[in-house]
Amino acid sequence: MLCGGTGCVSNKCLEVQQATEAELAKHDLQDEVSVVVTGCNGFCANGPVMVVQPDGIFYQKLTPEDVPELVSEHFLKGRPVTKLMYTPPEGDAPIPKLSEIGFFEKQRLIALSNRGLIDPEQIDAYIGRGGYDALSKVLTAMTPQQVIDEVKAAGLRGRGGAGFPTGLKWQFCRESMHTPKYVICNADEGDPGAFMDRSIIESDPHAVLEGMLIGARAVGASHGFIYVRDEYPLALKRIHLAIEQARDYGLLGEGILGSDFSFDVSVNRGAGAFVCGEETSLINSLEGTMPEPRIRPPFPAQSGYKGCPTNINNVETWANVPRIIARGSEWFSSIGTATSKGTKVFSIVGKLKNTGLVEVPMGITLREIVFDIGGGILDDKGFKAVQTGGPSGGCLPDSLLDTPIDYETLQAAGAIMGSGGLIVMDEETCMVEVARFFVAFTQDESCGKCPPCREGTKHMLDILTGISEGRGQEGDIELLEDMGRMIKDTAICGLGNTAPNPVLTTIRYFRHEYEAHIRDKKCPAKVCKALLKYSILPEPCIGCHACAKNCPVDAIIGEVKKPHEIIHDKCVKCGMCYEVCKFNAVERD
Amino acid sequence: MTTLTIDDREISVPAGSTLLQAAQELGIDIPTLCFSRHLKPYGGCRVCLVEASNARAPGKSRLVPACAYPVEEGLVVRTTSERVQKCRKFVIELLLQGSRESEELNAIARKCGVSTDEPPADNIAHYLAERAPKSGQTKCIKCGLCVRVCSEYIGMSATCFSGRGSGRTVKTPFDQVSPTCIGCGACAYLCPTKAIRIEAASE
Predict the structure, then answer these.
(1) DSSP SS3 for A508
(2) Hey, which residues does A184 pair with through a beta bridge?
(3) Residue A6 belongs to what H/E stretch?
(4) Nearest Cβ partner of B132 from A447, A450, A459?
(5) What is the CA radius of gyration of chain A?
(6) Using the beta-carbon criterion (under 8 Å), do B65 and A295 form an inter-chain contact?
(7) Under 8 Å CB-to-CB from A252, ≥6 apart: which residues?
């Protein structure tokens, strides 16, 4: 089982595949051992990764050069190759089995239950793992209302961000009398650092299709759209392939599985506007008009695509549906917290030892995700904050690491669940700069329909830029808080309503950093360039001249073997001298 | 008919009416900017935001655009609450910041209770008036009336929005004289800040 997700493909897993197949043929093993290219395994930082079944031995960071030894030792002689296994940062012995690696141990797979186990380009592989059983159950043994009741009882909530109860959404759409009706799969994943939806489509496209089929049956829809951003070529290829195969098997089209239910799907490519993640903007985009939010009511369930009742859910939500129908609402609702059931897929990125894609039960703590699964902070630096929910979310400090994660706790902390991007920051991260980065993103991605989001975020960005460049004034923190609250209250859609969150949470939890920037004109994390000053300490400087040689603007003077000096008017604060000095003589303050 | 309460006065209006229409029935004036009775409600400018709470959760209120929000049975609406006034003022100040010189916009602002003659009352107003960068001043406040009247009413789409976020502008296709413009002047007529001028073409 060789991972063929986007991360591993960029790490040249396809060359590893070729090498393995060639090597197997050389030993005449091609009929004994088959190489299956699967969807994303999740442990992206250590790719290309391979799992050898049936033992579940996990190999990582493979190159074509590793293959001959792997084949002759493991496949021929039955001796797993220790040096290609994963060794945890704190441990000394490699861990042979995938199931025993910390990154995987605490995960619970529902939406990703097929990941790494099937070839996503083969419908038979999906069916072999029980795929489309839920659809046949829905078509033969359940009424549409029973399907909705089951999803309601399961307590499934929208995985795209806001967490609206999925069953209730379906109910509204079912009760709309107008026909035709539509279902939409929102795969316009736009958060920086998030790749949950992409990976689900890449590793298990049929689960998304089956979820949509079940949802369409429940609400009474005859056509579906999958809105995928064009930056996801592999996801696009696999979903197209899955649709073709499903049509061939009579799982899409007229009279599905011999029933009276007809449904087909088309794929639309998004041009990469963040606002299209907002459902009414996405519908506008599907219709070919400017992507900007519509005023609700009417909600899409009453009047969506071309004025018809439309039910729109996110990729992960759809992928949960077949599993709920197959295993029952009681099983699903036994996982999670009182208000948030099931699991959540997170892409964990940033300053972590193990980055990648994980699916964890609701109610897990941030500490478990960051330290048990993520393996702790890169280079053993200190933890500072974790951003949940991408640019619409909030930065949470270490005091909240033990909070069980669900929709409500995150909201109470000033963040949101969002679609599942989790960005971990270490002690060298400047929180003012983090807030500035996210507001710059939302300002750039604002559609511009309403003044609070269009103009308000621009002013917030100006104020934040001023603070990070040493032009902050007393009262700016309060100004940002007031403006943030007003924007949240007055903007039309989720983009504007949440855009101030990164600013408000960084102020709430890291106010002292803002104060240091404004009052002392210092950046405690030493990130904001304008507030840094480089100088050479005469004591440790031996006059090696390395700094002067590397200075791009000739701002360092001094004779060889005598202490050097920086001309501050010329210095562009690039930090080159700081990097090259072997004697710790350059001070950054 | 749907019965609701606006500023402590009860009224029954046909189902499907908007809050703005119901308020007008009562003679209550809600300021609007991007609204025109000839066009579909857009709800973009946020000037007509009012506070609404429904009978099921009387303690919970939200801000909704009066021009687009349909009446609901038992809805309680406040058009001049502190929250409404604060938000209206905020939106007007944001718009004024980008079009200080526009007499028309200043007049609209005065109508909404925002005066540019008095010193700014709070820190947001102070920032927008004194510190915010003054570059990029334009008469256009991006309310979209011109774009919408041309596509919805005239059926020509001679102008459109271009760009997004603070870079949003109203343009003709490819910045050229629009080939579909029939020179009807509807856009200039509806423009609340007189940012569109009609000139006689010299043949």
Answers:
(1) helix
(2) A225, A312
(3) helix A6-10
(4) A459
(5) 27
(6) yes
(7) A209, A213, A243, A246, A263, A264, A265
Query: What SS3 state is found at A121?
Result: coil
> Which residues of B fall within a CB distance of 8 Å from A297?
69-70
**Closest by Cβ to A295, choosing from B41, B91, B98:** B41
Amino acid at A435: A
- Chains A and B: how many Cβ contacts under 8 Å? 98
**What six digits make up the tokens of A532?**
């840094």
Residues of B in contact with A278 (CB under 8 A): none
Note whether A462 contacts B132, CB cutoff 8 Å: yes
Q: Is there a contact between B46 and A457 if contact means CB atoms under 8 Å apart?
A: no
Whether A207 contacts A120, CB under 8 Å: no
CB contact under 8 A, B164 and A443: no
Q: Residues of B at the A interface (Cβ-Cβ below 8 Å)? A: 41-46, 49, 63, 65, 68-70, 83, 86-87, 90-91, 94-95, 97-98, 122-124, 127-128, 132-133, 141-142, 144, 160-161, 163-168
Give the minimum alpha-carbon distance from B88 to chain A in angstroms, rounded to a whole number. 9
Contact B165 A492 (CB under 8 A): no
* Amino acid found at A547: C
Comparing alpha-carbon positions, the chain B residue that sits nearest to A290 is B161
Chain A positions in Cβ-Cβ contact with residue B163 (cut-off 8 Å) = 448
Facing B46 at nearest CB: one of A448, A452, A459: A452
Strand order in the sheet with A37-38: A37-38, A2-3, A50-52, A57-59
A183, A310 Cβ separation under 8 angstroms: yes
pLDDT per residue, tens digit, chain A (589 aa), is 999 988 899 999 999 999 999 999 999 988 989 999 998 888 988 889 999 988 889 999 999 999 999 999 999 888 999 999 998 877 778 999 988 888 998 999 999 999 888 999 999 999 999 999 999 999 999 999 999 999 999 999 999 888 999 999 999 999 999 999 999 999 999 888 889 999 999 999 999 999 999 999 999 999 999 999 999 999 999 999 999 999 999 999 999 999 999 999 999 998 878 999 899 999 999 999 989 999 999 999 999 999 999 999 999 999 999 999 999 999 999 999 999 999 999 999 999 999 999 999 999 999 999 999 999 999 999 999 999 988 989 999 999 999 999 999 999 999 998 888 899 999 999 999 999 999 999 999 999 999 999 999 999 999 999 999 999 999 999 999 999 999 999 999 999 999 999 999 999 999 999 999 999 999 999 999 999 999 999 999 999 999 999 999 999 999 989 999 999 999 999 999 999 999 999 999 8
Which residue out of A490, A493, A495, A497 would a mutagenesis test of the B interface target, given it has the greatest number of B Cβ atoms within 10 Å? Answer: A490
Question: Is the N-terminal amide bond of B65 cis, ω within 30° of 0?
Answer: no
Q: Considering only CA atoms, give the Rg of chain B.
A: 19
Residues A492, B46: C-beta atoms closer than 8 Å: yes
Phi and psi at residue A343, to the nearest 5°: -120, 175
Residue linked to tokens 């309460």: B5
| Helices A233-248 and A196-203, axial angle in degrees (round to 10) | 40
Cβ-Cβ contacts under 8 Å, B43 against chain A: 295, 492
ipTM given for this complex = 0.95
Burial class for A249, CB neighbours closer than 10 Å (0-12, 13-18, 19+): middle
Q: What are phi and psi of B143, to 5 degrees?
A: -75, -20
Nearest to A174 by CA among A155, A210, A153, A148: A148
B-contacting residues in A 261-280 (Cβ below 8 Å) = 273, 275
Return d(Cα A87, Cα A101) in angstroms, integer.
9
Helices (H) and strands (E) counted in chain B, each on its own, are: 6, 7
Specify the 3-state DSSP secondary structure of A244.
Answer: helix
